[in-house]
Amino acid sequence: MFAYILRRLAVAIPTLLLLIIFSFILMHLAPGGPFSQERALPPQVLANLNAKYGLDEPLWRQIWNYVYGIVVHFDFGPSFVYPDRTVNDLIASGFPVTLTYGTLAFVAAIMVGVSLGVVAAIWHNTWLDYLAVGISIGAQVLPNFVMAPILVLIFTLWYRMLPGGGWSFNDPSFWVMPIIALATSYMASIARITRSSMLEVLGSNHIRTARAKGIPEHRVILRHALKPAMLPVISYLGPVFVSMITGSVVIDMYFSTGGIGKAFVDSALNRDYAVMMGITILVGTLTILFNLVVDILYAWIDPKIRY
Amino acid sequence: MQSLASTMVEHEVKGRSPWADARKRFVRNKAAMFGLCILIFVVLFAIFGNWIAVWSNEELDFNVMGQVATMGQPSIENGHYFGTDDLGRDLFSRTVQGTQISLMVGVVGAAIAVIAGTLYGATAGYIGGRTDQLMMRAVDILMSIPYMFVLILLLVMFGRSIAMLFLGIGLISWLDMSRIVRGQTLSLKNREFIEAARATGVSTWKIIIRHIVPNLLGVVAVYATLLVPLMILTESFISFLGLGVQEPLTSWGALISEGSKTMAYGTLWQLAFPLFFFVITLFGFFFVGDGLRDALDPKER
Amino acid sequence: MTKLFTTTALLAALALPAFAPALAAQPGEGETLAENQDLKFWILDAFKSLDPQLTSSRTDSDMIRQLFEGLLNEDSTGAMVPGVAETWDVSEDGLTYTFHLRDSNWSNGEPVTANDFVYAWRRAVNPETASEYAWFMELMNLVNASEIVKGEKAPEELGVTAVDDKTLEVKLTKPTPYFLKTLSHSTTYPVPQAVIEAEGDAWTQPGKMVGNGAYVLQSHDLGVEAVAVKNDQYWDAEHTIMDEVKFITVNDQNIGLTRYLAGEIDWMNTLPAGRLPQLQQEYPDEAISAPWSCSYAYIFNLSDKGPEELKDARVRQALAYAIDRDIIVDRVLQGGQRPAFNWVHWATEGYTIPEEDWGQWTQAERVEKAKELLAEAGYGPDNPLNLSIQYNTSEDHKKLAIAVQQFWKAIGVNVTLNNYEWKVHIDRLNNQDFEVARYAWCGDYNEASTYLDYFRSGGYNQGKWTNADYDKLLADSATAENPNDLYRQAEEILIDEMALAPVYHYAMAQMIKPDIRGVPLENVMSAWYAKDMYRVAE
Question: Which chains contact B through at least 3 pairs of Cβ atoms less than 8 Å apart?
């Protein structure tokens, strides 16, 4: 197991390098640069800007300097578009926000989704089941960029219950709408997966045996059925996590949360090379780590899997 | 997506050709048949919708322009069956045209993923050994790249075009496909008919194309059905970011995103009609996908 | 509401003689101040930089104007009033300006001196600073500005010197009629040398930043909100009523409007297109439109890379005629904008826009004429004209491009639309990689030359239109008794040749809470100072 983790981590490094080089080249191939603007800059100013940010060097040298800065100094460089800030500053201000509402939404999606799925499976083919399936399919196909403005209309304008945007680590009322908007569609997929896998487990031989032995139904479900039924759900968590970071673009735009989702899209559009690279690397690293955690969790629950 | 992969690996489709049985099971599945009817309806709408449209998708109705909330409502009389958009263009013909684009993105994107994934997975699984190890390790590596980010980059870098959209969306999802297909191939590889083919000296490539791939069609079909809605959802997100197709062309994502911006101003139909088609289509694909899986799964619950 | 604002503004303008000390707006008779004096202002995007010399965005300037003060300020009508400079003299040849500074302090208690301006202005032109607005100092015609920007001379040679702590002397290369009007721009604001040298790039962070404006930065949460509170060290602090200004970022205009209606925002100065009429019915006290000095046009690529067809003036005229500006203004934008038949914004100070014949025709007549012109130029059903319109990503530009596509279709021109993001749009414009492109110009100062300079040979002029007479008129205007006459003659040439198809003159459709007073709706530069505003009790 330990060796397996090490091996996975060892693969992570070339993966990240690949990602860095790929995005770096892509970014530099793009038309328009960070300093393209209406009044073309005087050549001297442009030359100074390029020198200041090291853009006058050959591409391979830039990549090397960039990677060197990260590895040796943990320095992701200065932002081209926010001259007062470094990429480290921007990530330090945005990432905790994204992480907070992302984690909460993640937990909420799992808890509500699993409960809904289990309820639907236990009361299979009753009105409860249909309701749960109806809700989850409905929630899954409603894009969050439709959901977000609806939430603001309802909770901010009509009922004046929640602030329509902004962020504070001390005031949970700012968190509610981002979490709902982000969690809903994943909650729905988790519910559907839980339901079908629970149905299958409940129909399996070992549950029939348990029931035949006279074990009370709630114990059968909690002790014997839930754990194996969670396997497909767990393998779904990796992709969910990644899509949530993508979904945070919508959250940041509609709720002014100041997270890294909006920062990424802005940096790509503004050709803010360093910020874009920094966030790509951050998200890439998180993806790798998270997939690893999911695999370990999977192995821990399913004793049949050996690495 | 992974869940799908693992669920399907668990219910392996057995090699005997149970097509007739499967069809019977599928036809008996009410939800699946309902889903199929929806999809047929949507496809007919996309193909023949323009026959009943009075306006084109780009004409501005100057009578409506500027007073859309009062004059642009859905109406049979002036030919705007679904009302008009914020600029006074006919929403019916725009929805028809958006449906064409979104379905195309969904189907072509899924097709790219399926073709690439199947060939890659079948090759890796059939050849086995070192090659298999190497090819699958590459998939592992590629899996940990945040694809939506790469897609955004691609669209920003190379400009927006339908071709880029197809390619980008297809690229995102062939990885899962290749894993599933590889698993299936491993179990097929030692069957008598494959061994027989090998013994008579058929080339590796031919075996993969002629014998392995056709036997994977069941799994591939199920997976493809469930992939299409994912493609459509991805496209809608891209359109929301403003990186979708060029005006005057449109897509469901673009229409929904525009409609959601104006929903507080008394023009709810601008959101409602495109969203309706979007939602029923996704429902349809989900139902048909589930139905196909149940039908092709001999362990029917 | 509009009326009330107009009268107060007029009274204020009448009451203030040209060189009267700038006084903050005071509540009038019968107005009681509200308990809470705070202003919540909507901004679309996060601040890029709060460094006066490094910023290049309008949003940033709105904040910087509260945190710093230049030599001059603008009053509610846009007229220049004393800021840090109490009085000033101009030499007879118009080349030397001497400013006498008032006693005022930085927010850390240090006095503001003439040297702070010298430092700031040198910093702006110094190539090492790499300021994107270094060109502004060239526009001001400061001695040696261009040479320093090009790296040919040292920043110390810039034509600005501190005679003593309270006297600043500025030398210009040529008489510049608009020079004083440039002095309220953020690039010219003083900055504290000691603080910048001690803190480096981080000096603009709350807690570290030191300014000389009426407010100090209290907090800044990037992309969420920034708060500025009253600065007790400000020289006119006793007349400053508003205690706090909060800039709230909302990236979506429609959500911004929802939050305004929910009471979370007090002032939203750019409403989504098409929303004003409905809001004016529902909130007659709050929905308002005010002219804003920017012009919208489609420019034609007349360079060698441009299409041959556009080099025929008749084609350009036909295209300009065919655009139905009333539909664009009244049906699409609906925010109080005006149809444009010329380039310079109609509300520009001291300028009367030229009366163009075609501006008086009906649209039917224009379309008729356009068809004739196209036929003369040899285009018709058998030989249709094919063009592409390039625009940058934005809901409004998209709507206009779609409408123009339809207008041109009506005279037999086939148009394809090309949408690029801003950076690419700008790159293609600068490299003449376009046929027809959407463009807008916002005045840098309130005078016609800021618009006309765009089309000078060697100006930004991305379509590469050139005309020797035009250039001469602009050159002569610098020393002319009444430059506005020359400006108008130049603009007549520009429109006769149809170097561009003007579309509309901007206005800001906005929502302002009814208890907020002192919003400078008469100022076409839309420069506002929170120190001049206050809230009345309802």
Answer: A, C
Distance (Å) from the C-alpha of residue A6 to the closest C-alpha of chain C? 38
- What is the spatial distance between Cα A171 and Cα A160, in angstroms, rounded to a whole number? 16
Tell me how far apart the alpha carbons of residues C25 and C39 are, in angstroms, rounded to a whole number.
15
CB within 8 A of B197, min separation 6: which ones? B207, B210, B211
Q: Are A281 and A274 in contact (CB under 8 A)?
A: no
A169-192 per-position pLDDT tens digit:
999 999 999 999 999 888 988 998
- Which of B63, B89, B258, B261 to probe the C interface (max C CBs under 10 A)? B261
ipTM, interface predicted TM-score of the complex: 0.88
Full set of structural domains in chain B with CATH: 85-294 (1.10.3720.10)
Question: Which residue in chain A is spatially nearest to B272 when comparing CA positions?
Answer: A146
Check: CB of residue A290 under 8 Å from CB of residue A102: no
Token pair, residue B125, equals 């699984």
User: Which of B87, B160, B266 minimises the CB distance to C402?
Assistant: B87
SS3 call for B249:
coil
Helix, strand, or coil here: C248?
strand
Contact (CB, 8 A) for C337 and C347: no
Chain A adjacent subunits, 3+ CB pairs under 8 A: B, C
Q: Which CATH class is domain C291-508?
A: alpha beta
Write down the pTM of the prediction.
0.88
CB–CB of B121/B139 below 8 Å? no
CB contact under 8 A, C254 and A149: yes
Measured CA to CA in angstroms, residue C205 lies from A10, B52, C224 at distances of 40, 61, 15
Q: Is the dihedral of CA A269, A272, A274, A279 positive or negative?
A: negative
Domain boundary assignment for chain C: 3-242+513-535, 291-508
- The mean predicted confidence, pLDDT, of chain A is 85
Out of 3.20.20.70, 3.90.76.10, 3.40.50.720, 3.40.220.10, the CATH code matching C3-242+513-535 is 3.90.76.10
- Interface contact flag, B253 A193, Cβ < 8 Å: no
Which residues on chain A are in Cβ contact (under 8 Å) with C49? 82-84
Instruction: Name residue B299's amino acid.
Output: K
Contact status of C496 with chain B (Cβ, < 8 Å): no
Provide the shortest C-alpha distance from residue B158 to chain A (in Å).
7
- Between residues 185 and 224 of chain A, which touch chain C (CB distance below 8 Å)? none
Residue C18 distance to chain A (closest CA, Å): 34
| Tens-digit pLDDT profile for residues A233-281 | 887 887 787 778 878 889 999 999 999 988 888 888 888 888 888 888 8
- Of C79, C153, A137, A127, whose CA–CA distance to B281 is shortest? A137
Question: Is the separation of the CB atoms in C345 and C338 below 8 Å?
Answer: no
Give contacts of B148 with chain A, Cβ < 8 Å: 242-243, 246
Residue type, A243: S
Answer whether C3-242+513-535 and C291-508 agree in fold: no
Distance from CA of C262 to the nearest CA of A (A): 5
| Alpha-carbon span A219 to A212, nearest angstrom | 13
Q: Is C95 on the interface with B (CB under 8 A)?
A: no
Q: Hey, what are C64's tokens?
A: 């910087």
Task: Say which residues have a Cβ less than 8 Å from residue A282's Cβ, sequence separation at least 6.
Answer: A91, A95, A260
